[in-house]
Amino acid sequence: MKAERLRALPFNVGALAGAVNPSLCWQIARYGVTGICTVAVYVGLLWILLRATALPETAANAAAYAAANLLNYLLHFYWSFRSKRTHSQASWRFLSVVVTGAVLNSAVVELLVQLGLPVELAALIFAALWPIASFVSLKLWALR
What we know:
The chain is an all-alpha fold. It is built from six helices and no strands.
């Protein structure tokens, strides 16, 4: 019965399953886990710095953001992408992807707001799309 239902589908399930690259799936999973860990470290470290030090909010935010990005780089370099590049080759490429993301974030969110979207929705759209562009940039260029 189950096989009959699969044959009745308008596409070949076996071909679809064969097209999935398990290695790429695991890499995407590692990329996602790295992103979640980075956000947790950023927010957690910011919370600690604001409560345990006399740093101004802007300085605490900058320190937490820098530390989280360093962790992000190291996790992506060694774990998510298992880069074959040297750090001198990969670090400036990684930094350029991060800076490009920040610039594009400002430009895209501003454009979407000018087109009439609420800023929260504009930011959410960028937050949903940027990880895809970042993954491709890191995989194919910065950390290959």
